[in-house]
Amino acid sequence: MKIPFLDLKAPYEELRADIDAAVQRVLSSGWYLLGAEVTAFEQEFAAYCETDHCVAVGSGLDALELTLLALDIGAGDEVIVPAHTFIATWLAVSATGARPVPVEPDEHTFTIDPARIEAAVTPRTKAIMPVDLYGHPCDLDALEAIAVRHGLHVVEDAAQAHGARYRGRRIGSRFTSAFSFYPGKNLGALGDGGAVVTRDAALAERLRLLRNYGSRVKYEHEIQATNSRLDELQAAVLRVKLAHLDEWNTRRTHVADRYLKELAGVDELVLPAVAPYADPVWHLFVIRTTRRRHFQDALAAAGIGTLIHYPGAVHRSTAYAGQTPPGASYPISERLADEVLSLPMGPHLSDDAVDTVVGALIAASRT
Ligand SMILES: *Cc1c(COP(=O)(O)O)cnc(C)c1O
User: Single Gene Ontology BP term (predicted)?
Assistant: First the structure.
């Protein structure tokens, strides 16, 4: 039995008839950008996130960058980011001309450690950009307290957390939040896509200008802006999938619960923790081990795909070489980068497949 890390074809196969019909509807409409599908998707996704406004854009990275621009963040400013994240979080800040200032994670939840944030705040700090990494919400109450104390914006990178809840409320309902619809995300398009959700009507309006040449009325340009639009085809497909997102997240939780139960006795594997305030959506199921290569090779030999999210800490990437301030070090992030291993996860992973992964991990722990 071959078990791929992620099966991207399975969601299409489950919904083939509805997705095909949605695509046909757009193809024969003759309208391909900023039309009825995008408007409907924006309303449906804002409602799903229990918030007021949604502005769909070209990617998750654009959603983050345009939100910072809409908040007038740029050169000379600093934005606090997790040291342990996908590089896009940092790149969104850098693209505005501002400086990403990393803060170490809580090693149990993998999300930014609120207790370490205030030491990183300076007079230049404008915002905190926490990440609901792997689908686990960050500690929003603690972040809000810090943001209020220092007068900072919070822009949440929710690219991995569609549908997650913090103390019962949806991610996206509290802070302005950026989502990605990259195909492998919990809500994935058939190409690139992203969105910002917010309670702030003025911010949403500014984002609508920024994504479309600074224009509300065709050929009237109010600000210098860019082109970053979700297309009608992607919006139509996302609408079909959104109706199944809760069910798919429940299936992910079922897989996670089985991994947590069956692997609890394997001493050398550190399993992901769930904070008391969190209903995670298990974008990834990430374990830790000091014998990562051994386990990854053993699983590969058994036909089981795994990945590493992420194999190098961002501050050690070539892209950010030489930009770590003197004396700063990020040992937790570096250790996580050396130890994390993502197991197969998804709504279409069968119970038999989970049994096979568990069996292979237990066998590998004895060699
Ligand atoms: C996927 C992702 C992004 C970027 O999304 P794209 O749609 O690929 O641009 C940003 N942040 C995190 C944490 C992500 O996982």
Answer: polysaccharide biosynthetic process
Of 157, 190, 192, 238, the one to substitute when testing ligand 1's pocket (max ligand atoms within 8 A of C-beta) is 157
Write out pLDDT tens, residues 181-225: 999 999 999 999 999 999 999 999 999 999 999 999 999 999 999
Ordered by where they begin, the domains of the chain are 9-242 (3.40.640.10), 245-365 (3.90.1150.10)
SS3 content of the chain, % helix, strand, coil (to 5): 40, 15, 40
pLDDT digits (tens, 9 = 90+) for 118-175: 999 999 999 999 999 999 999 999 999 999 999 999 999 999 999 999 999 999 999 9
Q: Report how far ligand 1's centroid is from the alpha carbon of 302 (Å).
A: 30
Cα→Cα distances 25→15, 20, 237, 324, Å: 15, 9, 11, 51
Q: Are 130 and 157 in contact (CB under 8 A)?
A: yes
Task: Determine contact, residues 195/54, Cβ cutoff 8 Å.
Answer: yes
Backbone angles phi, psi at 259, to 5 degrees: -55, -45
The number of the ligand 1 atom at minimal distance from the alpha carbon of 88 is: 10
Atom of ligand 1 minimally distant from the CA of 89: 11
Q: Is the CB of 89 under 6 A from ligand 1?
A: yes
Spatial CA neighbour of 138 closest among 129, 130, 146: 130
Query: Is the CB of residue 85 below 6 angstroms from any atom belonging to ligand 1?
Result: yes
* 30 vs 22: CA distance, rounded Å: 13
88 CB within 6 A, ligand 1: yes
Contact in structure between 187 and 241 (CB atoms under 8 Å):
yes
- How many A from CA of 180 to the centre of ligand 1? 5
